[in-house]
Amino acid sequence: MKLGKVRGIAIKFHFSMLLIVALVGFYAANFYLETVPNAPMWELLLVAILNGIIIVFSILIHELSHSLMALRYGLKVSEIELYLFGGVSKMEEEPKTPRSELVISVVGPLSSFILGIICLIIFFLPIILPMWLLVTLFYSGITNIGLGIFNLLPAFPMDGGRVLRSILWNKRKNILSATKTASKVGRFFGYSLMVLGFIQMIFGGIFSGFWLVLMGSFLSSAAKKSYEQTVSEVALSSISVREILVGARKFVIPFELPLIEGLRDYFIVFSQIYFPVVREGGEIVGIIHLEDIKKIPIEHRYRYIIGDIMNSISDFPIIFKEDTGKDVMKKLLKMEKKPYIAIAKERETQNILGFISELEIIRALNVRI
Predict the structure, then answer these.
(1) How do residues 235-244 score in pLDDT, each as one tens digit?
(2) How far are the Cα atoms of 235, 240, 361, 362 from residue 325, in angstroms, in the given order?
(3) Among 91, 249, 275, 326, whose Cα sits 20 to 30 Å from the Cα of 107?
């Protein structure tokens, strides 16, 4: 569910976040009941709802801190998603320097500490406030400080793990080596949480144990995926469009060709999923993808020629042979509809050199890695 945009960054709320809201509200109400044993039901509900809302606000501020700082360092942030395990700022690329990674990573926990301290300062002020508000301030203050401390654990890809990577990156001058070590530490923490969770479940803490197992599993998986993503990004940065085009398809299909014949004589024969479409004279005017053909019922395909269902050449982003695989991926990720294909051109002459889809990039990555 989209909540809106901040500085061009889409804010999304996943319904799994409601579980966090419910858990925080439940424990806050329990804490209030222990503090005020005879508290009326309306106060318990009020404390639960307020703390649930505050935790969503806190996580949003935490992620916005990361994202806004990333923007200052020239990184593109597409969205922030609040979900079961808190929140995530989706950056389209890794930070460019160890310093930028350190600053971007630290501001999130710092914002949590500041929010927690503000709540505790108001709690300790010599003013008369209702008990339900005092408990809410105290509980939210402790929760935010706890959130900041937890995020600073050196478990990649959490904030603390990214801080660890930035330090290793600065020391070794190698982001891959730093990421590999930070990822191993992240997986160690993930497996440790899983073991601790299983132990708790054995001794009766079924719910808390299951939660730890779930968190540990997520953390270990995220650490592995983040390392693989970094490997791919570094490799893509070192591959030129010229290299990718070496293995790119070179067959084209005529504009006027009946669709049935195109399927039989081109898609099946050459085992390709897309073809550039050319008019008489050799001018490339579009691209036809197998997925476009699948949308047409079999019994109606005889009515069409290739040109009827092709995608116009103007629908695709342009890249140049001096660009890198990373530049191509950025262009493909910005496309709003399939097929995700970029047109490679000669910068000076604007002549079309070829076409690059995700398949060509994966092929080039496999060769490089």
Answers:
(1) 888 888 888 8
(2) 8, 6, 7, 10
(3) 326
